[in-house]
Design a protein that fits this description.
Elements lengths: L2 H32 L22 H27 L6 H26 L3 H34 L23 H4 L9 H18 L5 H16 L7 H32 L15 H22 L2 H22 L6 H21 L4 H24 L1 H7 L4 H5 L1 H26 L3 H23 L3 H28 L2
Bound molecules: protoporphyrin IX containing FE and farnesyl diphosphate.
The site of farnesyl diphosphate (FPP) has 18 residues, from helix 8, helix 10 and helix 11.
Membrane topology: Multi-pass membrane protein
Catalytic activity: heme b + (2E,6E)-farnesyl diphosphate + H2O = Fe(II)-heme o + diphosphate
EC number: 2.5.1.141
């Protein structure tokens, strides 16, 4: 076998081992939260005899966890054996060695947990699993990088953040929509209707409607988790929280359009925005943003509660002032730090129901926070040159595609772990576990594909997969907490 074939086999084994370890973590948390561990108190079999009893969902979960542990161990051994036949860099070797040493320790901790159930041993088991997953992820990222470096040639060019200035405004191009307008003094009533439709459409575009479904799901998941404390959901509170949230997102988006109108003109992706073409006068857009902000605050104050209102206003301030004005044009950390704005709806949803902030809401917020770079960096890779033209120091512009992809993988890994932690802390069950496994695997594979096929299309696909991933996780939380409760 050639060394290239062995290296390819090693990469495949490492991908499979990393995914299997994640499956193991999710099944492990589900075993613990569903109480299926109580059905078995011996190890490695569930009784002194090896006879198979009636198949129950608890048994399936329990045996599933053990079976996947066995498969993961075999995959890890296979990866280590294959690694011994090729030259590896230090990071891959260290990550793999780390996982190989800790895996048998983890099996011992798991056996101890079966025989003597204890919260402390359970927490140690979860923590160790996360550390093993981290080691494998580091090894995987380095392996994929070396693989793509050897096949791709020169790395993509990067730009120093301090040197990024918006390109001179050379676009005096007329509004393509306005240019095709009939209009004029003889405008018919159908022409005026078309005009009105266009104006309404422009205002709707200012509110960034495409983002709303996912942010609403975040707030709904926060509300769903809150019911696990015993709190009941009032339909009026749910409706008012969603309405207040939608108005607040609309306000944020509008102010974002106002502030970025000159840079938007320079970027191909955003050059058709309403304020670039004066479809809405800037003063009107500012008034629109203020009206949306005040209406949102009133809705939240009258039908929800004061803390939720303050958090909603804080979210608008975070996105508009901290992210749009301060971070986005000035630092490559804009996305990481800006992720806090999108995380706030998780707290808003929880606070709308309980009136205070508690641990599960913070962990859900952490999931959104960690997911944000994994979500956005793929889009920023696809539009790297566009962002450079607009003068935005987005991470791929400053650090290059390869390093950005490394960060996507690491933030994705952290998101997967935070999702498992949330399931464990909130006591979520089957549906959440299966969704985390299925969509987590799809998300991870879509990013791995970026290494093999570093095109704009593949990066954009990862971006959309990131949205479906988060959407599915949030729907699983909502269904488990609200519909199956
Ligand atoms: C700093 C944080 C974030 C950045 C920089 C970012 C960036 C972007 C950008 C540039 C787009 C394309 C928008 C367009 O072309 O109109 C987008 C789309 C989107 N984002 Fe994010 N995003 C962030 C956080 C979030 C959060 C927290 C959520 C929800 C939880 C979210 C959900 C979405 C959705 C649903 C889309 C629409 C995709 C589509 O169907 O076109 N984003 N994001
Ligand atoms: C409740 C409430 C008000 C929440 C606000 C949170 C919020 C709107 C988060 C979304 C962040 C986001 C989608 C940024 C888009 O990036 P960008 O603005 O950099 O995109 P662009 O390049 O398309 O302008």
């Amino acid at each position: 076998m050639t060394s290239t074939t062995t290296r390819t086999r090693f990469t495949s084994l490492l991908i499979a081992t990393t995914i299997a370890t994640y499956v193991l973590i999710v099944l492990g948390t589900a075993v613990s939260t569903t109480g299926s561990a109580d059905t078995c108190a011996t190890w490695p079999s569930c009784s002194t005899e090896w006879a198979i009893g009636p198949i129950t969902s608890d048994g399936l979960l329990f045996w599933g966890h053990r079976a996947v542990a066995l498969v993961t161990g075999l995959l890890l051994a296979g990866a280590a054996y294959t690694a011994s036949k090729i030259d590896l860099d230090r990071a891959t070797r260290a990550g793999l060695a780390f996982a190989c040493v800790l895996f048998p320790v983890q099996v011992g901790v798991g056996a101890a947990l079966v025989v003597r159930e204890s919260a402390l041993v359970g927490a140690a088991h979860l923590l160790l699993a996360m550390v093993i997953f981290g080691g494998l992820l580091v090894a995987l990222v380095r392996t994929l990088e070396i693989h793509s470096e050897s096949t791709a040639g020169t790395p993509a060019s990067t730009v120093d953040a301090r040197s990024i200035e918006p390109a001179p405004d050379d676009s005096s191009d007329p509004d393509p929509v306005a240019a095709t307008d009939g209009g004029g003094e003889n405008a018919s009533s159908s022409g005026r209707l078309a005009e009105l439709r266009k104006t309404v459409g422009a205002y709707v575009t200012l509110t960034k409607p495409k983002l709303m479904w996912l942010l609403c799901l975040v707030a709904l998941a926060g509300m769903g988790l809150a019911t696990l404390t015993g709190a009941t959901l009032e339909p009026a509170v749910v409706a008012a929280t969603l309405l207040g949230g939608v108005l607040a997102i609309g306000a944020s988006g509008t102010f974002n359009h106002v502030h970025e109108r000159d840079r938007d003109r320079k970027m191909q992706r955003t050059s058709d925005r309403p304020l670039v073409h004066d479809r809405v006068p800037v003063a009107n857009a500012i008034c629109f943003g203020v009206v949306l902000t005040v209406t949102s605050a009133l809705v939240m104050l009258v039908w929800v509660n004061l803390l939720a209102t303050l958090l909603t206003l804080a979210a608008i301030g975070y996105y508009v002032v901290l992210y749009t004005v301060l971070l986005k044009p000035n630092t490559a950390w804009n996305t990481v730090l800006g992720g806090g704005a999108g995380a706030l709806p998780a707290l808003i949803g929880w606070v709308a129901v309980t009136g205070s902030v508690d641990l599960p809401a913070l962990v859900l917020a952490a999931v959104i926070f960690l997911w944000t770079p994994a979500h956005f960096y793929s889009l920023a890779i696809a539009y790297r040159e566009d962002y450079a033209k607009g003068g935005f120091p987005m991470f791929p512009v400053v650090a290059g595609d390869l390093v950005a992809r490394r960060h996507i993988m690491l933030y994705l890994g952290a998101t997967l772990l935070a999702v498992s932690l949330l399931g464990w802390i909130a006591g979520l069950g089957w549906l959440y576990a299966l969704t985390s496994i299925a969509l987590g695997t799809v998300f991870l594979r879509s990013v791995v594909r970026q290494y093999h096929d570093p095109t704009k299309e593949v990066a954009l696909r990862s971006f959309y997969v990131s949205n479906y991933y988060l959407g599915a996780i949030l729907i699983a939380i909502i269904v488990e907490t609200l519909l199956l409760a």
